[in-house]
Write a structure and sequence with these properties.
Blueprint (H helix, E strand, L loop, with lengths): L16 H6 L10 H7 L5 H18 L6 H4 L1 E5 L1 H11 L8 E4 L2 E5 L21 H11 L2
Antiparallel strand pairs: 1-3, 2-3
């Protein structure tokens, strides 16, 4: 939401990884913080949190935060075993989606059509053909 300009700092957006890493909820956590800390080469959670906060603050200060499509256009990102397990777990929801390898990370990429903001008459559910039904419904609901 920082990159989108909604907030100036991720701490101001309640539903993001930043807040979950720095102030993990006791229930319903989405991030396995123990694994994240270990994966990043730390053994001390507090040291990791301090360094993570400093990194994010520095990136914001330098205005170097850039959108990374592998995070924003993927269903899952991780190592090969994690992604293969995730694809099996998703079952039919992963049908037709391929696992892609990129710089030591693996992804299950979302269909690009999901991110298409063009709603022309051919793609949109609300079209000229539907206007009769809407008009009829609207007129009947007012009587």
């Amino acid at each position: 939401m920082v990159r989108a300009g909604v907030v100036k700092h991720p701490s101001k957006w309640g539903f993001c990884g930043y807040n979950e890493i720095l102030d993990p909820p006791e229930r319903y956590t989405l991030i396995d913080n123990d694994r994240l800390v270990a994966f990043c080469g730390y053994s001390d959670h507090k040291k990791f949190q301090i360094d993570y906060k400093a990194l994010i603050d520095d990136e914001i200060k330098k205005n170097t935060l850039k959108r990374k499509p592998y995070w924003t256009e993927s269903i899952a990102v991780g190592n090969q075993n994690f992604i293969e397990d995730m694809k099996v777990s998703l079952g039919a929801l992963a049908r037709g989606r391929k696992i892609k390898a990129d710089d030591e990370k693996y992804i299950i990429q979302e269909h690009l059509a999901s991110y298409n903001a063009v709603f022309d008459a051919k793609k949109c559910n609300l079209s000229a053909q539907n206007s009769y039904y809407w008009k009829t419904f609207h007129e009947n609901s007012n009587t």
